[in-house]
Amino acid sequence: MSEESVYNQLKELLAKAGGAYRIMEEQIDVDLQVEFFEMANKLLKEKPDPESVLNQKGLLFNPETSAVDKKRILVELSNAELPEAYRMIKQFIDEGEYELKPWAILSLQHSRITLETHLLDENQVFISTGLGGDSSRLRYFIAIRAKYNKTISDYQKTVINNEFESVFKANGSTIENINFFEKYFTFKCLIPIDIAIHNVVILSIAEANQYGNFLSKNYLVTNVKVLTQSEIEKYFNKKK
To answer: How does pLDDT run across 165-212, given as a tens digit for each residue?
Structure first.
């Protein structure tokens, strides 16, 4: 699916939701998210008694309880439409085991959405990606290469820093960091959910290219994970 197609579908989804959405801020592995929501949907169909779910607090905080059972309890709590369940998950995050923290964070976010949907009597859209975001922006990882496989000079690095920062700021976006390699550079950024990524990136490239036409318009973008050097170079080598 193309970047533009994804953007248009996201706009359509938000329009149907009437602007009621929440973005997960934390960066959590996408495969773990899939596992969580598959379990949440499965357990929701079983319709366990909410009070019996709350009564599992002792098991949840017992160091002898297996990680598998704790994950199930956290999901059941996230499905319960009870403020007590939300507070229990929050307590687990504050006191719980480090290896289960990403799962517990997913449970807390899901519990919040479940509660808001129940109390406000309206559906809430929950947007989660591997790289997270903030209240109104999604985080992306972007890689852009130099034209003709040339090395990026120190002067060009300064131009990139200045021009990209200016364009992103003008579009309500934030560049969190930039890492330069010999023939390409990467950065993580936050872009408002209602702004097309392509427009911001292409405009940034165009502004930088006024100072020497040294950047390719072919770039790599993902919101799933931070890519490794080998993954980036493999992609660019295919595009030569």
So the answer is: 999 999 999 999 999 999 999 999 999 988 889 999 999 999 999 999
pTM for the model stands at: 0.81
Q: Which neighbouring-strand residues pair with 178?
A: 187
Enclosing H/E stretch for 22:
strand 21-23
SS3 content of the chain, % helix, strand, coil (to 5): 55, 15, 30
Residue with tokens 């699916």: 1
Signed CA dihedral, 197, 195, 164, 198: sign only: positive
What confidence category does residue 33 fall into, taking pLDDT thresholds of 50, 70 and 90?
very high
d(CA 225, CA 121): 34
Alpha-carbon distance of 31 to 25, in angstroms, equals 17
- Assess contact for 22 and 127: CB atoms under 8 A: yes
Q: Give the CA distances from residue 98 to residues 31, 70, 103, in Å, rounded to whole numbers and listed in that order.
A: 18, 13, 10
Say if CB 228 and CB 220 are below 8 A apart. no
